[in-house]
């Protein structure tokens, strides 16, 4: 099909059909693949112009980004050529805010929750008029399959419901995401170095590849309060430098880059983890230590995350069952705050993640629950 990018009569602006969705605690511009040029190398100028990058002020006011990594995202969805494998193919791009980086090296778990509803709402997949439906998604960044299950009403994804996620106000319809066989998304193994822990810069780390490659380090070992909130972390440039140095060296150990300098901004992701403790979160409420199994502070594309990336949460839940890992050593033994899975406390609240292992020790799937909704659709414009 001919892609649908056109210029206005004045030739000053270009435009293409698009939608704007919230997925979990992120937002993204959503394109149908058929509306973009067939060659991916031609996508970057479109994505950068539509999102408003690069912006030296870091605000993306001339586009649809929001000056945060969680709001500077693009999703491209098309019908899967092999209907036996999946219903749709989904490609994720993380867009640099102050630079021209268009990074396809990782998936976004939060925005994955919007892919199924977009496939229904845009007509890419025929839907039942009412009832639950499951959309099989192939993420092209990781070549992994995700099953997204959610209710449909009158042929559209249901937006209303009574399910709430921390970090997003109000309630919405619940979306179940089942990440099938998520280990080894980029490296082929849950533990890319075959070790439960490694040493980088004299710091013990656990390198785990589940959903996305991740690096976990104890906040205590870095001399940091693990309950520090994002704004306070951002005011510690030396801490961010240390974490980025560890992350880049982890990239080399995991086989993701040939050297630290060439490591991408998106992967591996890095997070500080700590034992549960009662502390204040961004809302001003107190989180009781009995509510969670572990506290996490994630860094996403150089910025402290105000919640937790879904793929980071997935990797932590898997690492919690790996004997000797940094996560397993810090998690309280013999109990779970929630019987449905491993509960992570983050800066905006908590999230429960279920990691299910087979009898032979392989990771079968990881289950998380999110919400998503369409915010607008129509045309997006760029210069």
UniProtKB/TrEMBL annotation:
Belongs to the PrpF family. It comes from the Eukaryota. InterPro entries: PrpF-like. PANTHER family: ACONITATE ISOMERASE-RELATED, DUF453 DOMAIN PROTEIN (AFU_ORTHOLOGUE AFUA_6G00360). Keywords: Isomerase. SUPFAM superfamilies: Diaminopimelate epimerase-like. GO terms for molecular function: isomerase activity. This is DUF453-domain-containing protein.
């Amino acid at each position: 099909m001919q892609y649908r990018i056109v210029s206005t009569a004045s030739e000053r602006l270009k435009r293409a059909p698009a939608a704007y969705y919230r997925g979990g605690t992120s937002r993204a511009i959503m394109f149908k693949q058929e509306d973009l040029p067939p060659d991916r190398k031609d996508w970057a100028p479109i994505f950068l112009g539509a999102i408003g990058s690069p912006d030296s002020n870091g605000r993306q006011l001339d586009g649809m980004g929001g000056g945060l990594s969680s709001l500077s995202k693009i999703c491209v969805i098309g019908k899967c050529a092999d209907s036996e494998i999946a219903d749709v193919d989904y490609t994720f791009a993380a867009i640099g805010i102050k630079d021209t980086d268009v990074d396809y090296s990782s998936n976004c778990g939060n925005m994955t929750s919007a892919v199924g509803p977009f496939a229904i709402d845009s007509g890419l997949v025929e839907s039942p008029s009412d009832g639950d439906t499951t959309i099989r998604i192939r993420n092209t960044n990781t070549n992994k399959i995700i099953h997204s299950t959610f209710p449909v009403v009158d042929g559209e994804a249901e937006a209303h419901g009574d399910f709430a996620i921390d970090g997003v106000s109000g309630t919405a319809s619940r979306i179940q995401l089942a990440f099938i066989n998520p280990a080894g998304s980029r490296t082929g193994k849950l533990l890319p170095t075959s070790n439960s822990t490694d040493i980088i810069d004299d710091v013990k780390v656990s390198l785990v590849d589940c959903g996305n490659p991740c690096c976990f380090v104890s906040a205590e070992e870095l001399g940091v309060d693990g309950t520090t909130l994002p704004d306070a972390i951002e005011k510690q440039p030396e801490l961010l430098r240390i974490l980025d140095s560890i992350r880049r060296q982890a990239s080399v150990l995991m086989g993701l880059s040939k050297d630290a300098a060439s490591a991408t901004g998106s992967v591996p992701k890095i997070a500080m983890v700590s034992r549960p403790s009662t502390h204040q979160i961004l809302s001003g409420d107190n989180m009781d230590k009995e509510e969670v199994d572990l506290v996490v502070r994630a860094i996403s594309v150089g910025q402290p995350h105000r919640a937790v990336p879904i793929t980071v949460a997935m990797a932590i839940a898997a690492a919690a069952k790996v004997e000797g890992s940094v996560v397993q050593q810090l998690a309280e033994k013999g109990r779970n705050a929630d019987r449905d899975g491993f509960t992570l406390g983050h800066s905006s609240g908590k999230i429960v993640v279920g990691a299910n292992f087979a009898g032979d020790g392989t990771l079968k799937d990881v289950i998380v629950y999110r919400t998503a909704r369409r915010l607008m659709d129509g045309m997006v414009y760029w210069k």
